[in-house]
Amino acid sequence: MSQVQVVTKSETELPKDKNTFKKVISKLGPLLALIILVVILSSLSDKFLTVNNLMNIASQSSINALLGIGMLLAILTAGIDLSVGAILAVSIMIMGIVTVNMHMNPVIGIIVCLGVGTFFGWINGILLTKLHLPHPFISTLGTQFIGRGIALIVTAAAPIAGFPLMIQFAGNQFVGPIPVSFLLVIVVYVIFHIFLTRTKTGRYIYAIGGNPEAARLSGIKVDRVLMIVYSLSGLMAGLAGLVMVGRVNSAFPLAGLNYESDAIAAVIIGGASFFGGVGTVSGTLIGALTIAVLRNGLNLLNVSADSQMAVIGIVIIAAVYVDVIRQRRAKKK
């Protein structure tokens, strides 16, 4: 009798061990992929694994990492935000008018930049929750065109240069070898990690993505949460714009063009699901770093920009395919 019990116990423990191993691999998959990519590129170029180049990668990833946070929030609710690049552009153009053309205080300019971004994100939320447009794809695509149009109109498509040093700080300063822009990313990511894991609103975001109807029936104010999500996505676009202006000391109406693609890629490569309810802040940071590492490494290997786009496209398709397979297996269980 005791032997039967021992055999039964061992048989039930093996699947648990296998499931635990699969869960660990699933969670660490994006990080392992990034490490493997770093090892491969280091072996192909002796210039890759240097302090200067690694800090360059950190700096290059900053804008996409900030946009990725907003995109993560949208995707967690089974939505999407196609307007982040255009919101970035209109935010920095209006900031340029305020600080450069009108010579107002840089602090006011920063507030305006973040405020414009938040306002456009709020508009996305209104279109989705009050006008009940069928999907965020539609509402944010419309906002993308509106934002880009305004960015072109307000200065007759002319760039604005010569920003105050305070505005440039986040984009071109360093603390030791570390770019201030990347330190800003770390601070923002810690805040959003706490927001998503320790607050009711954060838990509601996951619940809405998992099952919006069940979330409504459980008493969650879905429309209110979606308003917060898209407003925060707009805020992050404004903050990313601030970093961009600091880096190049200019604002131009086509800034952020197609940046939404990189932001989506960062979120999906980081392990989030297009179906909603699955994704982490840390995964999105890993995704943004993966894209920056890939682009940097391909540059060092003298791969053309067009070929780089193709490679990143393949990576995105692979990440989405993995997500689809994961969802199919989850449904079978």
List its traits:
333 residues, ABC transporter involved in vitamin B12 uptake, BtuC, two-stranded antiparallel sheet, 4 strands, 78% helix, globular
Please describe what this structure looks like.
There is one protein chain. This protein has 333 residues and is an all-alpha fold. It has one domain: Orthogonal Bundle (ABC transporter involved in vitamin B12 uptake, BtuC), CATH 1.10.3470. The chain is 78% helix and 2% strand. The chain has 13 helices and 4 strands. It has helices at residues 2-44, 51-76, 84-101, 106-129, 136-153, 165-172, 180-198, 200-210, 212-217, 222-248, 259-269, 281-300, 305-332, and strands at 160-161, 174-175, 178-179, 250-251. The strands form 2 sheets. The protein has a two-stranded antiparallel sheet with strand order 1-4. Strands 2-3 form a two-stranded antiparallel ribbon. It is globular, with a radius of gyration of 22 Å.
The gist of it:
By secondary structure, the chain is mainly α. It has a single domain, classed as ABC transporter involved in vitamin B12 uptake, BtuC, CATH 1.10.3470.
Task: Write the SSE topology.
Elements: H1 2-44, H2 51-76, H3 84-101, H4 106-129, H5 136-153, E1 160-161, H6 165-172, E2 174-175, E3 178-179, H7 180-198, H8 200-210, H9 212-217, H10 222-248, E4 250-251, H11 259-269, H12 281-300, H13 305-332
Antiparallel strand pairs: 1-4, 2-3
Helix pairs in contact: 1-12, 2-7, 2-10, 2-11, 2-12, 3-4, 3-5, 3-10, 4-5, 4-10, 6-10, 7-8, 8-10, 11-12
